Amino acid sequence: MKLRMRKPDEPAENILVEGDRSEEIRSWEQSIFAKQESAIYSVKRKQSLQARYIYGFIFFLTNLLAWFVRDYGHKFLHILHYITVCGIDGDECFHAAGVLRISLGCFIFFSSMFVTTLRAEKLQEARNSWHSRCWALKVAIYLLSVMVPFIIPSGFIQLYGQLAHVGAGIFLLLQLISLIHFLSWCDSKWMPDLQSKKCGFFGLFLSTIFYLGSFCGIVLMYIMYALDTSCAINIFFITWTAILVKVMMIVSLHSKVNRGLLSSGIMCSYIVFLCWSAIQSEPHTQKCNTKKMMAEDGDWTTILSFLIAICAIVMATFSTGIDSQSFQFRKDDIQSEDDDVPYSYEIFHFIFSMGAMYFAMLFISWEMDQPTRKWSIDVGWASTWVKILNEWFAASIYLWKLISPAVMRDKAINPEQHVQNVQVSV
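C-alpha cells predicted for Probable serine incorporator isoform X1:
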C-alpha cells in the first residue's frame, strides 16, 4: 500500500482509502491483461489446430499428383521429356520413378518442417508462428521441394526407393502404436469399472458389434475368396486370421488378464480388415479373387475404390500424426499451461514425412521395377505379404500387451515366494 504525507486538516482514513483504491486498480489492470493474453493464446491455438487440416490437404494433393504422374504424366507432362535425368523417352520421371520423385519432394517438405518446428513448446515462440502461418512462403517451399527431385539423377532416386521401404515400415509401426493407444483409451472410457461403479453398457454393445463384424467378415471371405481347395493360400490366410481372433478373445477373457472384449473386438476387426485387404491386393490374374475382370482404364467401381484408397491413406496419416501423446517417452502428469502448444509439431511433421514414403510404396506396390495398372493401388504379391505380415505383427504386439502385466506380476511374486520358502526351511 502506498502512503503519502497527510495534510494538517485531512483525516488519516483518506490516505488508507486511496491506497486500497490503487491496489484495486492494479489488480483490475492485471486481470484485463490476463484476459487479453488468454484471448491471444486462444487465437494462436485455433490457428495451430486449423493448420493440421491444411497440411493434410497438401498431403492429399501430393497423393493425387503422384497418381497423375504415374498414370498420365507421359501424355500431358511433355516438358519432362527434355530433362536430361529423365532419359530419352522420359521414363525415369514417369510411372514408378515419377512416384518416387514426388514422394521425395513431399518428404523433403515435411522433413524441413520437422527441423524448423523441433522442440516448439510455447504459443508465443516464432516456431509456432512458422507452423501455423506464413502459408505463401510454405507453398513456395513445397513447390520447390516437389520440382527439385526431377533434376536429381536416377541413381539417387533408386536409393531413395530402397530407403522408402524402411520409412514405410516405420510408418506402419507408428500407426500400430497409435491404434493400441486408442484401444487403451476405449477401455478406460467405455468398459465396466468396479471402483467407479461404471456399468459400461455401451462398451459391451460395441464389443458385440465388433466381434459380430469380425465373424461375419471371416465367413464372407471364405465364401468369396476360398472357392475351392485350389485357393490354398487364401484358405491359409483366412484360417490363421480366424485362429488369431479366437486366441485374442480367449486371452482377453482370461482371469489373469481380464481386459474385457472391447479392445480385443476392435483389434479383431482390424486384423480381419488387413486380411481382406491383403487378399484384395493379390495380382489380378488370380482366379480365387472374384474382383479381377476390370477394364484396363478402370470402370466407375475401380475409380471409386481408388479414390477411397487415397482418402484412407490420407486419413491414416492424419490420424496418426495428430496423436502425439502415443509417442511421448515421458508420461509425467505435467499440468498444461495456457501458452503451451496443443500438440507436438515435430511428431506431426515426422509422421507425415514417413507417410510420404508409405504412399510411394503403395503406388508402386512395394516393387520399383514392376509395372502398375492404371487406377490401381497396392496390388501385387509384395503388397499382399506386407499386409499379412503387418496383420500378424499387430496381433502379436496386442497379445503381448494383454499378457505382459500378468507375466511381470508373476515374476515379481515368484522371487518373494522363493525367499519365504528359504526362510521357512532355515
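The chain has eleven helices and no strands.
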